[in-house]
Amino acid sequence: MSFFKSQFANVVEWQEFRDDMIFYKWGNREIKKGSKLIIRPGQDAIFFNNGKIEGIFRDEGEYDIESQIIPFLSTLKGFKFGFNSGMRVEVLFVNTKEFVVKWGTQNAINIPTLGLPGGLPIRANGTFNFKVNDYMALIDQIAGVREQYLVEDVKIRITTVLDQLLMKWITKEGKDMFNLQANSFDISKGIQEDLDMEMLKSGISITGFNVMSFSYPKEIQDMITKNASHGMVSDVNRYQQISLTDGMAAGKMSGGGAASDIAGMMMGMNIAGKMMNQQSPNQPVSEPSSARADGQKRPNFCPNCGIKAEGTNFCSNCGQKLG
């Protein structure tokens, strides 16, 4: 008798478990007398027949199907194994963990932007999280016709609609196209809600979505960087000074040799003088030596004899009072 029992018995388990596999359908549709069910950590075992769930078993361990499983099945309760016949039922093993997937736009998304007829080309990357939350929907939409389902399958579904969702939430409420990172939280939250509504139909919940970074073409990024540096400039003169300094630092001064060096040095001294004056607008300016205490200037030449004055109060030639 033990010979026949060993011949018919089988083990219902997730064979060749893969960490990137969302579910696995046990291949043998007929469970024999004396069979065992093995549930490992992070797995749920679902018994279903004709598309209807008979029972869900979540606790890890090894179970005798006849005595510990069948009594809890809905319509198959009380099933009795025959000598040469078994129970025809499907068993689906589901990975219960939360999956984390990296994503990135394959091609640049042209976001409509004022002044750019073709749109602003933007790329983005980040992560999204998901897990199975509705076994009935999973069986109806996917597991009923597939033997297994991988993380890559979900990623493909997500990326097919991601470009449209990025465009929708980037352009929503007139966000600053050149500072999208500041709005990444709102953009991510909106995309997660839309993706979750879409994937719930298949029994999968999007538990998180994150935009890690946005990237622009090099020319646009250079413009953004330069604009940010000039954003610290408070007036036109300071802007011109920075531009001239950038030109000298980049070696864009015309000419060459000693003449170019002297021109650059003079320009630098001029800029430095202007900046010092602007930084100290209230500093008193010293009066020229020819100025009188009452604010009137002394004459440069003696009004009596015409000799050039030397800055004194009296003419050195004729004695005429000058101050």
From TrEMBL:
<feature type="domain" description="SPFH">
    <location>
        <begin position="28"/>
        <end position="231"/>
    </location>
</feature>
<dbReference type="InterPro" id="IPR033880">
    <property type="entry name" value="SPFH_YdjI"/>
</dbReference>
<dbReference type="Pfam" id="PF13421">
    <property type="entry name" value="Band_7_1"/>
</dbReference>
<feature type="region of interest" description="Disordered">
    <location>
        <begin position="276"/>
        <end position="298"/>
    </location>
</feature>
<feature type="compositionally biased region" description="Polar residues">
    <location>
        <begin position="278"/>
        <end position="289"/>
    </location>
</feature>
<protein>
    <submittedName>
        <fullName>SPFH domain-containing protein</fullName>
    </submittedName>
</protein>
<dbReference type="InterPro" id="IPR036013">
    <property type="entry name" value="Band_7/SPFH_dom_sf"/>
</dbReference>
